[in-house]
Specification:
Elements: H1 8-20, H2 24-38, E1 40-46, H3 54-61, H4 64-67, E2 71-77, H5 80-88, E3 94-98, H6 100-107, E4 112-117, E5 124-129, E6 146-149, H7 155-165, E7 175-178, H8 182-190, E8 196-200, H9 203-209, E9 213-219, H10 222-229, E10 236-241, H11 242-247, H12 249-268, H13 271-277, H14 287-297, H15 311-322, H16 340-349
Parallel strand pairs: 1-2, 1-3, 6-7, 6-8
Antiparallel strand pairs: 3-10, 4-10, 5-8, 5-9
Helix pairs in contact: 3-12, 7-15, 9-14, 12-16
Length: 351
């Protein structure tokens, strides 16, 4: 794929240097030497094209990781739980996924820590197929039905469980079915494989616009998330095993720098800028739909990458609603994230 080499602002800066006739050889050499210095980092992500992971895509496509001297390889999986598994098995160094996994892994005796937060709300919605359930009226009608999630154990299942709990239903009152991400998930709903689907945008906006899906639980705005979860719920983040953060602090800092730079870019990006920055495949053949979905979730992206003050506590509280057994384990929330890398990145980019 063709990657944009320069943002509009960077183009102006480079043009000025070009006029002076001093930039080309030195900059190229410096970038090559910097990349060689930090080497390669592999990031596993569940559903690379969804808006949930947009800051990661932008940091990669706009060259922000390269600018930090880091060569990033992104491995895409159909669900966040599978991306985490890749890290556990040594197939990736870092995971892009829901913050809640750091808590779950601590309960299982593993030390994972978020190093930069990309989303401060889940950006998910639970939609019901009006083809499969034409008489659907409320959440109680989902009793005994099949609910599509990216995979069992992923954040989509947690979010769906929280929505269902508001109607007095527990996880065993429905059947959760792993359907992957993107078009596979959408086709599972449309074909009747599942009666409802919990997924991220732009898929959910597409299903809404086709008028064959009714939204039963919406977590795609800060207000909705606040009402649903009772606080700021950190969602997409970069998290890694604690040994990686200790042994490869320079790489972790470069990752945080790239994401914070992308988050800053998002604050002022125009729709046309976004369309040019993301790979064409992410647009699903409909620029208007993609931008409508982006507009719906735009406020939920972090503005600086820091963990919200109540973020980790809110995440634990939400997990405990669905998994009461967590009450028997003392979770050390301070070990599930660090803001150290983001603080340095904010100083660098004046965020």
């Amino acid at each position: 794929m063709t990657r944009p080499l320069l943002t509009r602002r960077a183009f102006g800066a480079v043009s000025a240097l070009s006029a002076a006739g001093v930039f080309a050889p030195a900059i190229v050499r410096a970038q090559a030497e910097g990349a060689a210095a930090l080497g390669n980092v592999t990031i596993a992500v569940g559903g690379q094209g969804v808006l949930y992971h947009l800051p990661l895509a932008l940091a990669d496509q706009l060259g922000y990781f390269k600018a930090e001297g880091l060569d990033v390889t992104v491995r895409d999986f159909s669900a966040g739980a599978l991306a985490l598994q890749a890290v556990q098995e040594g197939g990736a160094d870092v995971c892009a996924g829901a913050f809640e996994h750091t808590i779950r892994q601590q309960v299982r005796g593993q030390s994972y820590r978020s190093l930069v937060v990309m989303g401060r709300a889940p950006q998910l919605a639970l939609g019901v197929s009006q083809r499969s359930l034409p008489a659907y009226k409320d959440l109680a009608d989902l009793q005994g039905r099949r609910i599509g999630v990216s995979s069992v154990g992923s954040s989509t299942q947690l979010a769906a469980s929280v929505v269902l709990a508001r109607a007095g239903m527990g996880p065993r009152d429905v059947a959760f079915v792993g359907v992957g991400s993107g078009m596979a998930a959408m086709n599972a709903l449309r074909s009747g494989q599942v009666h409802a689907l919990c997924h991220a945008d732009p898929i959910m906006t597409l299903l809404e616009q086709k008028a064959d899906t009714r939204i039963a639980g919406d977590m795609r705005s800060l207000k909705a998330a606040q009402e649903m979860f009772g606080g700021a719920l950190p969602a997409s983040c970069l998290y890694a095993p604690q040994p990686f953060l200790q042994k490869h602090a320079a790489q972790a800092q470069a990752l945080a720098n790239g994401i914070v730079h992308a988050l800053k870019w998002l604050q002022t990006a125009a729709p046309a800028d976004l369309v040019k920055a993301v790979p064409p495949g992410y647009l699903m053949g409909d620029r208007g739909l993609y931008l409508a979905a982006f507009s719906r979730v735009r406020e939920t992206y972090s503005t600086h990458g820091m963990m919200p003050e109540d973020g980790a506590a809110t995440s634990l509280r939400v997990l405990s609603r669905v998994h009461p057994e967590l009450a028997d384990f003392k979770v050390e929330l301070a070990r599930t994230y660090t803001n150290d890398f983001v603080r340095k990145a904010r100083q660098k980019f004046n965020v």
